[in-house]
Design goal:
The complex is a heterodimer of chains A (155) and B (71).
Chain A: H1 8-26, H2 32-39, H3 43-55, E1 60-61, E2 68-71, E3 74-75, E4 82-85, E5 88-91, H4 95-105, E6 109-114, E7 121-127, E8 130-132, E9 138-141
Antiparallel strand pairs in A: 1-2, 2-3, 4-5, 4-6, 6-7, 7-8
Helix pairs in contact in A: 1-3, 2-3
Chain B: E1 2-4, H1 7-17, E2 23-25, H2 27-38, H3 51-61
Helix pairs in contact in B: 2-3
The chains are: A alpha+beta (155), B mainly alpha (71).
Chain lengths: 155, 71
């Protein structure tokens, strides 16, 4: 159901769900006009919603645009964190997000990346809702939590 | 947030970049963090975690100390 005029919170919820639906189904986020067509709302209202969602850290837009860069845990652009879920392939923004993709889809999956130090290919498998963690791999956070959103691209 | 082969590789990489070590998690801690963070992300009722809620998640996974302080 589409939000009544003036209800920004409901519109933003509908836009968020439309964005994620497209990403899950097709592996890439929609454009402003794609969401506008789908919800039957003007592009200016959708563009404003994209920017509100970005201000709320729900979406990340490519700098200076209204194009979706991140709808965590999904990345709109290829990253070093590939996630295979069934016959679909997604990209996570980081290893945390990559693990979050099988979580939010509630499916098994394989995360493929490589060690930033030695470039060795590394993988983590999610099976039956659990992580198959029989390795001594280590997840590293470089930026303290309070500064994650100072520059979310490099975080 | 990156995945390394081992702690030794994190240290080597950090030294090369001239950065401090930051914080490390086991894959299992990372998995628990992902579950807490993303389990309901596709739900209509999902809302972004408040700083207090995020702190509770970190605490429950053993991610404590100044590095994990949200404010």
């Amino acid at each position: 159901m589409v939000a009544p005029p003036g209800d920004a919170a409901t519109l933003d919820r509908d836009v968020r769900l439309a964005v994620y639906r497209k990403i899950v189904d097709e592996g890439s986020p929609p454009t402003v006009s794609g969401v506008a067509d789908g919800l039957g709302i003007t592009t200016s209202e959708i563009e404003a919603s994209f920017h509100r969602l970005a201000e709320d850290h729900v979406l990340v837009l490519a700098p200076g645009t209204s194009s979706i860069w991140m709808a965590s845990p999904f990345s709109a652009i290829p990253t070093p964190f590939q996630v295979e879920v069934g016959d679909r392939r997604y990209f996570g923004n980081c290893i945390w997000d990559a693990l979050g993709i099988p979580v939010c889809l509630r499916m098994d999956g394989r995360i493929g990346t490589s060690c930033p130090d030695c470039s060795e290919p590394l993988s983590l498998d999610v099976r039956d809702g659990s992580l198959d963690a029989s390795s001594d791999h280590v997840i590293h956070f470089e930026v303290p939590a309070a500064r994650w959103w100072d520059d979310i691209g490099s975080t | 947030m990156l995945l390394f082969r081992s702690e030794e590789h994190v240290m080597r990489w950090s030294e090369r970049r001239g950065n401090s070590m930051g914080a490390t998690l086991t894959p299992e801690q990372g998995w628990r963090l992902a579950k807490e963070w993303y389990e309901n992300r596709l739900s209509p009722d999902w809302t972004r975690k408040t700083p207090d809620e995020a702190q509770t998640v970190f605490d429950s996974i053993g991610l404590v100390g100044a590095f994990w302080a949200m404010t």
